[in-house]
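Model: Ready when you are.
Researcher: Fold this.
Model:
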Amino acid sequence: YGSDPVIIAKHLEQLKVDYFAVAYVNEGITLRDAGIITPILVLHPQIGDFQKIVDHRLEPALYSHRILDFFIDFATVEKLHHYPVHLKFNTGLNRLGFNTYDLPVLLDSLKKCNAIKTVSAFSHLVASEDPDERSLSLNQIAAFKDISQILIRGLGYKPLLHMLNTSGIMNYPEAQFDMVRAGISLYGFANDQQFTKHLKNVVSLKSVISQIHTVKKGESVGYNRGFIAGKDLKSATIPIGHADGIQRAFGKGKGFVTIHGHRAPILGNVCMDMLMVDVTGIPCEEGDQVILFDNQATVNELANSIQSIPYEILTSISQRVKRIVK
């Protein structure tokens, strides 16, 4: 979510979280190399990464017969015993996961193999944030319950069950099962303002003014004359651009920054490493602090201005932007 994964993981580990989940193997390796010992679920492992998974004690999500068979073969050759794996089930998202009709063959494969052990089964809601899709979400939850019962009977034991993301946790508390996957809510965001107002924002993005220009009427600002002044104004150049995650879509007045409590709209096109804003009438000097966002409302407003979502705003901030943890 745009933060420093190691620092966040270390803090959460101190708070005794039960599991971490990462998208890819390299993210899990980063946490292990930093000394994280909590179990780590890899949501989207690749076959070529199996050795890395085992070497770093990561736990793969298996979501198809192909990846299951490859991992069983790998685990057998490596003479592993009850290596922890997680089974992903598709209940409507149609992204990754075994389907209900896969269960007979899936269970047959699992029963024949002692090299791996299913420690959890999970699915993912399609529209947990959308009240208009409540019936769909309830149908998904019911489908996952049915899958879980078949799986439990077939395995002869009950693995951990989990289905809910941030919006699911808030909208479907009856479906929390054994674990929940809190993501963006850890940073103070939910997909509903009623819930967001109860969360504490923990992220901000700040920069400084590099230079202030006087722009005369008829002069332009930025590449391709993206802005032409209709009157004399002052512009400020900020050392952050689309290579840092400030998308070009924010250009030409769609985005803004805040300087000393005043909003300054973006002028022209966002450059790779810089952007320019209108500071006419704003008391400011070169070197002054610039706030791109420091609260949930601003992030939501920026996201809405380019038909995006807070997830994209936060995760777009590139790793060259310095992270400061207080």
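Researcher: Now this one.
Model:
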Amino acid sequence: MESQSSKTEYPVSSLIKKRRSKRAYLDKPVEQGKINSLFEAARWAPSSMNEQPWSYLYATKDQKELWNKLFDTLMEGNKIWVKDAPLLVLSLARKNFKKNDKTNTTAKYDLGGANAFLSLQATEMGLNVHQMGGFDAHQVRLDLNIPDEYEIGVIMAIGYPGDPDLLPENLKQREVAPRFRKIQDTFVMNESF
């Protein structure tokens, strides 16, 4: 299924224009080579002092126990559509620098950059990534034994885009609606705030 491109005010990469957070997934596993490429893209994201504070825990649908542990922490509204996603990924950020154990105040920012690289790589390979904050982070930490030194980021549902007609009507409408972004004048300044 071809991704529709968004209309931008100024020229940007075609990957940025095509990237969407879809909810409809094909019943098709993501190949291990493509999974490896997603994390390779994240690996090459920039980070403060080249700390690379990100870590990822992933589960394919074939790994039923682990996939279900991630799935079970999701809010009910996400479970409706995530049930069809063949790959779930939990992103994490190490809170402190390794070299001096001081707080890394940009760790979560750096994780967001790595997640963005991963998302654009997915778009390049015909995959969809939908990042979610709607889950029980405390339960994830308990169920997956996440050490306290890591801050929990997002859970991502990843897979090949499916047929929006198979979604509940309210989600279908969101799936096919054009993407909307604020215009630059509302968030870009070149003088004092």
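Researcher: Key takeaway?
Model: Residues 20-173 form a domain with the NADH Oxidase fold (CATH 3.40.109.10).
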